[in-house]
C-alpha cells in the first residue's frame, strides 16, 4: 500500500515525504488514491510548476482561512479557481504569502463577480487603488483620506491584490490547459497600467500630506517599459516630473510620490530626467524643452520614444508629450547620432558580467535589450517620415516596421515570437519571489530549470525532458535574436538594390540610404552602389553574396571605416571572382567572415595585399583541434620555407618573383595576426625581419649564381644588417639598411676582381628587389656604409679596417652597434663582426667629447629632420619619447659601457634596455618607461602603415584615420580615439623625461 501510494504521488509530481499526510488532512486523499470528488483537484495540483510548493502553500492557506470548507467546495467544482490557485501557489512564494496573509482574497481567483478577469480597463484599476487610500476616483485632483504609514500599507495591499488577480489570469493555462492563455504583451500592458494607477494613488496621498498651493501643477511622465506599456512584474518605474506654478511645492510632491510608491509597490526612478541625478527633480515644461533643444544627447531622445503621461495634471502631461515628440523624430539627423548609438550599444554590453553572459535574458547577446535597441533605432531612422512607426511599444513598433516594409514580415514575426518567449521567461523568474532578476538558473540547477520550464508552459517533446526543451528553446531564440542586425538592418537593404524575390514590401532606396547613414556609412549612396554590384545578376556568386552580406555588413558597421571596408570587400570579391573556394569559405567559416570585415574596415594595406595573396584567407579560420594556428607560425620555419621554395626556381627572374610573392604573403599574414591581436609588437618586428632577411638571402644566392654563370664564383659576399634590420626590429614600412663586405674566394682572385664581381651581384640584388611593384617597396639602403653614398658599395675587410682605423666618426661607431650578418657567407660575416667589435664597444669607454658630439648630432637631427608641420608630441620616430629618443639613449649607454659589460653587446633595443637595467645603468622604473615608449611608438608606426597603406610617422590628428589607428592598437572601434592619443602622449612624455635625464644629462 505504502509503495503504491508513493508511486501514485510521484506520478503527480509530489516527492516530499510529508505530502501524503498533508493531502489526508485536506481531505483529498485516502488509501492509495484521491478521494471521490478530489480527482480533478489532484490533477490540477500536478500541473502546477512545483506541486510540492503548491501543496505546502495550500496547507498554510487552509490553516489561515476562516472558510476553508467553502474554498474546498469551490475547488472541486470551479475549473478556473483550480487552475489559477494551484498555478499561482506553485509559481510564486511571494504572492502565495500575500494570499495566506489575506486569505479572504481567494475570490480574486474564482469564476465570479470578485475575480478581476482581464482585461480590466485602467480606470477600474485606478479607482481600486484610489479607494484603497480613501480618495475619490472621480475628483479632478484626488486627495487621500488615509496618509502616512497607514496609506503605504493600504496601497501595498491593494497593489498586491491586483497582482494576484493578474498573475492568476497569466498563469491559468499553466494549471489548467482548458483555460485561455494570456499573452505576455497583454500582461506587460496591464502591469504598466497598474503601475500608473499606483503612481496616481501615491500622488493622492502626497497631495493630502503636503497640501500644495492651488497653482501647483504636477504631471508624471512614464518612461522606459512603463511608458511603452511593457512593464515587468518587478521593475523600476522610470518617470520624469513636469511642474508649473510653485515648483518647490511640486518638487516636494514628486519626492513624496517616489517615497510612497517605493515603500508600497516598486522603486520609482527619475534618473532619465534632464542632467540625470544631478538635475532638478521637477522642471517646468519650458525648462524641459530648452534642455532638449540645447544639450540633450541622442540616447535621451531614444528614451523619449516611450514618454507617456500617466498621472497628475493631464493637460500638462499632454503638452509635454506634444512638445518633445518633434525633437524625438529629428534625432537621427544629428551629427553625433551614430557615435551616440554605438556608445549606447557598448554600455549595454559592458553591463553584462562575464560569468552571467550566457544566462542573461535582458542584457546578454541575443537578449531582450538587443531587440528593443534595434527596434528603437529603426524607429528613429524611419519614423521621421513615417508616423505609423511612432509607437512606444516594442512589439507594436516591430509590427509597424514589418507592415511598412522596413523589416521582412517573416523576420518581424520571428523576432516578435522570440521577444515574447524571452519576456515570458523573465516574468516567470520574477514572479517566483517578486524580485528583480533577468538571470536564468545555472545549467547545474535542474530543479530550478524544471520549475521554470513548467511555469513557462513547456512540455517534454519525446526526445528531451522538460529541462532539455527549455534549454533548446532558450538557445534557439537567443541565436535568432543574435542575428538581429542582419535581419532587421541589412536584409531590406539588399532588397532595395537587388532583384531579390520578396513577398512583402520593399525598402525604398531613399530609406535604405537613410538606414546606412544611421548605421555609420558616410557615403550611403556609394555603399548602395557596391551592394548593387555585389548582388546583381542571377549567378551563383550573386546568390551567395545575398546570403552573406547581411552578416558582413553587420561586421563592417562596427569598424572605424565601413565605407572603405565595403569598397575593399567589393574589390577583393571582384579580384577573386574566379577563385572557387572564396565565397564558400566566407559562407561556411563564420570566423573568417567576421575577421575579414574587421580587417577590411580597419586597414588599407590588407586589401591591397589580399587581392594578390588570397590564400591567406584560409589561415583566418579557426584551426582544427590539435593543429597549430597558421596566423602565428614560427618565423624561423617561415624563413627556411621561403629559402627552400626560391632555391627550386630555374632562373633569376623566377627566383626573385617567388621571393617577392612569398614576402607579400608573409607580410599579409603578419598584418592580419597583428590587427587581430595574435602577435606582440616584438613578435611582429621579428617576423617582418625574418621575412626580409630570407628574401635577401634568397635573392643574393640567386643573383650570385646568375652573375657567375657557368664559371666559378670569384668572391665571397656577406650582407651586414644595420639599423632595424640588424636589430630584428623592422616595421611594415622599414627599408633594409645594410652594408656589403666581400673577400676573394681563392688566392688566385685579386681584391679588385672580388670587389668588381661582388658589386655586380649587389647592384643586381638592389635593382631586382627595387623594381616597381604594387606591393610595399623592397628598398635595400646602403647609405650607412663608409663615406655614405659617395663611398664604394662593396668593400673588402681590409678596406673597412683601414677606413674605421683612420676616418671613423662617433656616429659611425654608433651605427655599428646594430650591425649583424644577415645573409651571404657566414664566415666572412663573423670576421666582419670581429673587425668592428673594438670600434663599437671601446674598452676605454667613450670620451667626453664623443658623448658631447653624439648629443649635438641628436639635437640637430631633432631640429632638422622633423617634417614641417609635424607635431613633435605625436611623431612616432622623431617626437618626444619616440623611437629615436629611446634608441639613441640605449646606444649611448652601450658606447659608454659595453666595453666593460659584454651583456650590453646586443643589437636589440629592448634587450639593451634590459641589460642596462640589470647592470645598474638604469633604474628598473626608467627602463620600464623607455620600453613602454618604444613599444607604443613602434606599434603606432606600424598601425599607421596598416591603416593608410603607405609609410608614415605622424599620428593622425582626428577623424576616421585616427579611429582606425586606435582600433588597430586594440582600442574599441566605436570608442573615443582621444583615449588612445591621451595614452600615447602620457607614455611618450614619461619616456622623454627619462631621455632628458639619461641621454642629455639634464637635472630635471
From TrEMBL:
Every PII-uridylyltransferase/Glutamine-synthetase adenylyltransferase domain range: 343-489, 860-999
Which Pfam families does UniProt cross-reference here? GlnD_UR_UTase, GlnE
Q: Which residue ranges are recorded for the region named Adenylyl transferase?
A: 501-1004
According to UniProt, the reaction catalysed is: [glutamine synthetase]-L-tyrosine + ATP = [glutamine synthetase]-O(4)-(5'-adenylyl)-L-tyrosine + diphosphate; [glutamine synthetase]-O(4)-(5'-adenylyl)-L-tyrosine + phosphate = [glutamine synthetase]-L-tyrosine + ADP
Q: What class of enzyme is it?
A: transferase
What SUPFAM superfamilies does UniProt report for this protein, alphabetically? Nucleotidyltransferase, Nucleotidyltransferase substrate binding subunit/domain
Q: What EC designation does it have?
A: 2.7.7.89, 2.7.7.42
Q: What residues does the Glutamate-ammonia ligase adenylyltransferase repeated domain cover?
A: 84-320, 594-832
Output the InterPro entries linked to this UniProt entry: GlnE, GlnE_rpt_dom, NT_sf, PII_UdlTrfase/GS_AdlTrfase
The entry sums up its family as follows: Belongs to the GlnE family.
**PANTHER family, sorted:** BIFUNCTIONAL GLUTAMINE SYNTHETASE ADENYLYLTRANSFERASE_ADENYLYL-REMOVING ENZYME, GLUTAMINE SYNTHETASE ADENYLYLTRANSFERASE
- The entry's protein name is Bifunctional glutamine synthetase adenylyltransferase/adenylyl-removing enzyme
- Whichever gene encodes this chain, its name is glnE
